[in-house]
Amino acid sequence: MKRLIIMALAAITLGAKAQQVMNITIGGVTKTATLVSNSSTEALVAQLQQGNITYEAHDYGNFEKVGPLGYTFPENNEQINTVPGDLILYQGSNLCIYYDTNSWNFTRIGKLDGMTQAEIKTWVNAGGDNVSVTLSISQPTGISQVKADDVTSKAYTLQGTLAQEGHKGIIIKNGKMIIR
Question: For domain 21-136, is the CATH number 3.40.50.2300?
Fold first, then answer.
């Protein structure tokens, strides 16, 4: 039983790898996109950690805004039927923001978060002039350092309540997990 509980805690602690989010700014309006996990996005994120990428995108085929990134990234091409909001790496060096559908052999990068087709078309100026697109990533935020209180004798349950003397189960005491 104790081993099962420890394995469950380890799974919760390690969890699934957090999804990477990229910011995309057009016309002063920033939207987010959730990136897929592949070598293309890993290389793109590594480049974005060095600084933002700004490129000019033009309409193509009445279904996408596309433009050269100024860098070449690994390709992970597969047959894809795009939908509005898809972000596609084309020929390793062009980023396409889809506002309609298409089918081709592409590298999927990610998808815009929570936007309708109409919202995407307005944002990218579909059918209109070229737009300047800026890609960026936010540095992770959250807890960077934990300091324990000076009190070292109290023990707590996993629910965060004070564990009574003789409590059976998993407790946290002095920053360590103890199984009683």
Answer: no
